[in-house]
Amino acid sequence: MVQRSQLFLLLVFIIFSAIAAETENQDYVALLSLKSMWQNTPPNWVGPDPCGKGWEGIGCTNSRVTSIMLSSIGLTGSLSGDFVMLSELKTLDLSYNKGLTGPIPRSIGNLKKLLNLILVGCSFSGPIPDTIGSLRQLLYLSLNSNQFSGQIPPSIGNLSSLLWLDLTDNQLNGPIPISDGITCGLDMLLNARHFHLGQNNLSGTIPPQLFNSEMPLIHVLLDGNQLTGSIPSTLGLVQALEVLRIDGNALSGPVPSNFNNLTNLIQMFLSNNKLTGPLPNLTSMNLLSYVDISNNTFDGSDVPPWFPTLQSLTTLIMENTTLQGQIPVALFSLPHLQTVVLKKNQLNGSLVIGTTHSNQLKLIDLQLNSISDLEGKEAYNGTLKLEDNPICGVKGNLNSYCTVSLSNASYSTQKVDCEPVPCNSDQISSPYCRCAYPYTGSLFFEALSFSDLGNNTYYNILEESLMYSFHSHQLPVDSVSLALSNPITASSEYLEVKLKVFPYGQVCFNLTGISNIGFMLSNQTFKPPPPFGPFYFIGDKYEKFTESKKSSRSSIVIEVVVGGSILLLVILLAGVYVLHTKKRAERAIEHTSHFCVGWFSLKELEKYTNHFSVANEIGSGGYGKVYQGSLPTGQLIAIKRSKKESMQGGLEFKTEIELLSRVHHKNLVSLVGFCFEKGEQILVYEYVSNGSLKDSLSGKSRIRLDWMRRLRVALGAARGLAYLHEFANPPIIHRDIKSNNILLDESLNAKVSDFGLSKPIDDNEGSHVITQVKGTMGYMDPEYYMTHKLTEKSDVYSFGVLMLELLTARKPIEHGKYIVREVQETMDKTKHLYNLHEFLDPAIGLGTTLKGLGKFVDLAMRCVKEPGSDRPMMVEVVKEIENIMELAGVNPDANFTSTSASYEETSKGNSPNPGYPYR
């Protein structure tokens, strides 16, 4: 009788979860309001349940609308103030809909849970409402390429979590707001990494208070405004800065002397201002690649001695800077140099190019100087421009260098070796010779680390990076095509690259595919590879969707009829429930059948654990305690019992059961069952006999892991993790990979455990989720920690740390030292064991040949690359570890039949209980 009542309670819980699946009425009303003000909404926006019926572009969580992603679908109209009713909304992306006009309603400030506000490339106008400052959780604010006017709201300074601020290419005016003790300002954005405010009409000075040494800013883009006054010296305090654009203003005075402290700077644009004083000293900027300080009035001075010290330099542009003297030959020997433009100066003497110049050097432009002689021209095959120099006055001399020729770099994707096919009317042939309707748009790169715009290698890298990003986010993309016909736009001097994205397996994209591609480019999920700098994308309207537009009139009729019936249905619901209790119970039982796990009573689990006795306790953690038990069949189990104070809500507990019951893999710990009774939340797992990897590495379990066994452990853990990422439906991010959560069975096979922090990635969420940061310090992905954006690459980072732990048996953070940084600074590929002798665990077998060690270290360091886009996918990690094992002469798929007894270290006394590290 007791078990029957317990089952009834579980059924009631599931039934009410199903009832709650219908979209909240206020969300439905808000979406109807938006639909009434927009044209060209998706054709399946019909019916009263946008969540349950899957309205395209609408993402939901627990029956509440949490995202609207509708880029490039040709929406026209304005924003309704009623969308404030979407109180759970986290992402609003309406980018690339030029037909969206009018102001942003002030009521937007009531969307307190908004994380992403992305309205790139629309036609919104009017002032940016100051109520945006109420969105305290906002991470990304991208309003670039609209027609916003007025001043930047000081209230934006309230957005303490903001990482990305992009207001580029609008009509904003007035000063850059800073705080004064009464009002807020942008100086309060202490977590921001991006200030993109270029191509506006901002005036006044760059406030010194805007910058300080605690800021993590990597991009400061203030180009193309009307800023005056001097460059504040506080800008030289921002040590993380990588890209600085303050060109195209009316700035005056000298360049601050402390700019030499910006040792991470890669691109610096100071051109087209009114700067005076001495030429800036750039001696310590070892990473500086692109320098443009043209068209300023610096004091006449000789060529600075820092020219040859910039070993990363690709581009040096110093046109019209009163430079004088002779160019040192060492300048042309810089290994990466591509372009030197020193025209319209007072350079004189002999130009010596030399025979050791960079083989990448394509352009030397010295027009309008006083050069009288030339040496070493025979060894140089690039373009040399000497027009209006005395040397060109010599009759018959250097005609090819003294006549200006106009060049226009171009690039277009080369087709692979395939047979071209004729395409219908407006279809286009892809690089793989397949006819389709591509999604098109333009990538605008606001800074570059190269100037050889005709170099196909760079665009090939960009294509590969785009395809990798599309595929890693599981987007239906077959290929991409890039075109570069007019590389530099006259207004902004940004590099414009035309992009065509071709659909996979079909002639055209559906609306969901377009929205996801647009979102990946609008919210900066795609990280361009070096040497391409910060960018923004402007997508074109896509008109060839897979679905055909339906009659809006019939849709309205359906909505009115169904919507008007909601109240009647609610009134009848209680009666229907009573009359059909039996059928509901049957459906509920069927619903729970996919758990594929058992349901245990509390009384049963008490019996299996001797009433949860201390003698049966094998582990504990923040969640609660873990007990060893035994089923009547003799099967050993591990029982994780939550603390009362850490109890999850019923929905979260149910979600965890569903997640764990869906995954089945030999390298994942299996869920046997659960108990949900008398306020208890208990999970029952298979028992894994040899405890955790941490116990083995620390010596606690007395199991010695040599090099081959560590490779097997790494492979098993990688395979389990790859299964979660690639084959679970939806994909699952573990979020807490560490040695304590890798268990070893009796044959030392690795099993990934503890899914308490795991997050499934639903289709509506794209390839990542913005979520509260959780995990274990030392293993945690720094990109996830900084941005709150969780992806599969976050697990890859943690796995890379785990690989280093396998090598060293050290904790990730020990005595204030971080193992990743220590290995990075010490490793030397030219030396034996990569120069890591002092780090390697002696138990690994240092007296033997560690075949594949170098490749293992290389793979680990790729996994811990700080940009997530540079890390491999887990399926790639699995393949590389398999290759390493084959290199070491071991079959990765051979059965590991020996028991752990043969691996225990010989010592007196009994081995302690290895513990059971479920947390």
pLDDT under 50 segments (min length 5)?
Answer: 1-22, 488-492, 547-595, 896-919
Q: For the report, how would you describe the main beta sheet?
A: 15 strands, mixed
Radius of gyration: 32 Å
Query: What do the pLDDT scores average to?
Result: 82
CATH fourth-tier homologous superfamily of the domain at 693-903: Transferase(Phosphotransferase) domain 1
Q: What is the name of the CATH class of the domain at 693-903?
A: Mainly Alpha
The percent range for helix content is: 10-25%
Strand order, biggest sheet?
Answer: 2-3-5-7-9-11-13-15-17-19-21-23-25-27-29
Into which percentage range does the β-strand content fall? 15-25%
Mind telling me which CATH architecture of the domain at 693-903 this is? Orthogonal Bundle
Shape: globular
Distance between the termini: 34 Å
Number of helices: 16
User: Might you state the CATH topology name of the domain at 693-903?
Assistant: Transferase(Phosphotransferase), domain 1
Question: What is the number of strand segments?
Answer: 50
Which structural class should the secondary elements be placed in?
alpha/beta
Secondary-structure topology with pairs:
Layout: H1 2-19, H2 25-37, E1 38-39, E2 58-61, E3 64-69, E4 76-77, E5 91-93, E6 99-102, E7 116-118, E8 123-127, E9 140-142, E10 147-150, E11 164-166, E12 171-174, E13 194-196, E14 201-205, E15 219-221, E16 226-228, E17 243-245, E18 252-253, E19 267-269, E20 274-275, E21 290-292, E22 301-302, E23 315-317, E24 323-325, E25 339-341, E26 346-352, E27 363-365, E28 370-375, E29 383-385, H3 399-402, E30 411-412, E31 428-429, E32 435-436, E33 439-445, H4 456-472, E34 477-484, E35 495-503, H5 511-522, E36 535-539, H6 552-579, H7 581-592, E37 598-599, H8 602-608, E38 617-620, E39 624-630, E40 636-642, H9 650-662, E41 671-677, E42 680-686, H10 693-698, H11 707-726, E43 732-733, E44 742-744, E45 750-752, E46 759-760, E47 769-770, H12 782-787, E48 789-790, H13 792-808, E49 813-814, E50 817-818, H14 819-826, H15 853-863, H16 874-887
Parallel strand pairs: 3-5, 4-6, 5-7, 6-8, 7-9, 8-10, 9-11, 10-12, 11-13, 12-14, 13-15, 14-16, 15-17, 17-19, 18-20, 19-21, 21-23, 22-24, 23-25, 24-26, 25-27, 26-28, 27-29, 37-41
Antiparallel strand pairs: 1-4, 2-3, 30-34, 31-32, 33-35, 33-36, 34-35, 38-39, 39-40, 40-42, 41-42, 43-46, 44-45, 47-48, 49-50
Helix pairs in contact: 1-7, 11-13, 11-16, 13-15, 15-16
